[in-house]
Design goal:
Radius of gyration: 22 Å
Distance between the termini: 65 Å
Order of helices and strands: HHEEHHHHHHHHHHHHHH
Helix content: 55-70%
Low-confidence stretches: none
Strand content: under 5%
């Protein structure tokens, strides 16, 4: 039965990647409207449950790692079609290696160095497989964005996704009676982070002087939907990130120019946000009132575990995606005892059978240091620096154009998401990771335009 199921999965994967992807690319050649609709569909489809666009081989569902098999993301097949369309059109701006992709592949290469010392090398190959294929998303989106209208198509797709996600959250909260709703995500924290990540560039577009009334209405409604989603998740860190990002984008728009629309949207947003927070104040205060001291904060103990792993394996780590083995009994007894001692200090009795599948650290950076070592974490920080550099340079160059605020919003969104990674590891999850790569590809294309404009002007 398992063999038949695996064979069926392989056939579906082959049909999607080797059939639908190239056929889509052939169809999209020279069809601008179809290409933009496809870009918007990619962005919109990310709001759907992960099972709608992913398929896993060699799945290990009981494992508490951040990757549970060899994952195939069908959005990669769409990106492959977009890339092939540009290649077959013989576009001069097509590149197999867009700006910044080298840093992403370097991150994967450094991560693969940890395979040799991993408790389970196969587990380490799983995220490498996933991250390499994210390069297809990068190339496909970069290739499909020919001008500003293509960027708008992506953001319109995201805007519709946010509005749909709010509908799902409201249904689960007020019809089904849920509390910290998850929408179509695995957990509320990834949903909150995904929401504000795309809400900030959408807000920038709503504030743009060149945006049509229809787009302003769509984008502002989507931004409001994102705010409601973040509030419904009762995520304190995401709410703070959303608020900080909103203030930065609003401030940037006023630096560019003070207009009646921007002042009106700022006042309306402030009023609506204040009313929403007033209604949700009791819920947030209940969470804030909890004891977050190291003695009672599980995140502190998990970070201590990660620090112990990094001390023992400083350069290459204990193996990509092997944290769930190294921090739990029986293989990870040494590091499980870090958590067990923390529990003992809280007056808890230790039952070994309860420490067979311990949780992972919530911090993306401690996870990188533990699994991929100093080199792996440095490679990720290099990618962060490259993408933000693309954003800063292109924002400055296009600041006075219609693209300026959008690029600024994209840069702010990525910067806050990277910073948020200190307390959330959600960039390891498929939806958030795919979204991040798409936004990085948009900034890479903008930086490409900047370089071309420089060359033509010289």
């Amino acid at each position: 039965m398992d063999i038949a199921k695996t064979l069926l999965k392989v056939l579906v994967i082959a049909f999607v990647y080797l059939g639908i992807g190239p056929l889509l690319g052939y169809f999209l050649r020279g069809r601008d409207l179809a290409r933009r609709l496809t870009l918007g569909f990619m962005a919109w489809w990310l709001v759907r449950p992960p099972s709608d666009f992913t398929l896993m081989l060699d799945s290990i569902e009981k494992y508490r790692g951040h990757t549970k098999g060899f994952e195939f993301n069908f959005l990669e097949a769409i990106a492959l079609g977009l890339a092939l369309a540009a290649l077959w059109e013989k576009r001069r701006d097509f590149r197999f290696f867009p700006p910044g992709l080298w840093a992403w592949l370097l991150l994967v290469g450094v991560g693969l160095l940890s395979v040799a010392g991993a408790m389970n090398p196969t587990y380490a190959l799983m995220p490498a497989f996933k991250f390499v294929k994210m390069g297809i998303i990068f190339v496909g989106v970069f290739a499909a964005v020919h001008d500003e209208r293509d960027m708008l198509a992506v953001m319109r797709g995201f805007a519709l996704a946010l509005i749909l996600q709010l509908g799902v959250c409201l249904w689960k909260r007020y019809v089904l009676g849920g509390f910290r709703v998850t929408g179509w995500f695995e957990h509320q924290n990834p949903m909150a982070m995904w929401s504000y990540m795309i809400a900030l560039p959408i807000l920038a577009l709503a504030l743009s002087k060149t945006a049509s009334r229809r787009d302003v209405s769509l984008f502002f409604a989507a931004f409001g939907a994102a705010g409601l989603v973040v509030v419904l998740t009762v995520s304190r860190a995401s709410l703070a990130a959303f608020a900080a990002g909103t203030l930065l984008v609003m401030a940037g728009s006023f630096v560019q120019a003070i207009t009646v629309r921007r002042v009106a949207l700022a006042l309306c947003g402030t009023l609506c946000g204040g009313l929403i927070l007033l209604k949700a104040a009791d819920t947030f205060m209940a969470r804030v009132g909890g004891d977050s001291s190291p003695k009672n904060d599980l995140r502190f103990a998990l970070n201590q575990q990660a620090a112990a792993m990094h001390r023992d394996h400083p350069w290459l780590g204990i193996g990509w995606n092997n944290y769930g083995l190294a921090n739990s009994r029986p293989q990870g007894l040494k590091y499980s005892q870090v958590l067990e001692h923390w529990e003992e200090n809280r007056g808890r009795r230790i039952y070994p059978e309860k420490y067979m599948a311990n949780p992972l650290t919530e911090s993306l950076y401690w996870l990188l240091l533990a699994e991929n070592g100093t080199l792996g974490c440095a490679a990720f920080l290099l990618f962060v620096a490259v993408t933000l550099w693309h954003g800063l340079r292109s924002t400055v160059f296009f600041w006075k154009s219609s693209l300026g605020l959008l690029l600024y919003g994209l840069t702010v969104a990525l910067a806050i998401s990277y910073f948020h990674g200190q307390v959330e590891r959600v960039l390891t999850q498929t939806k958030n990771l795919t979204t991040m790569v798409m936004l990085c590809a948009l900034l890479a294309r903008a930086d490409w335009w900047r370089r071309q404009a420089r060359r033509e002007g010289s």
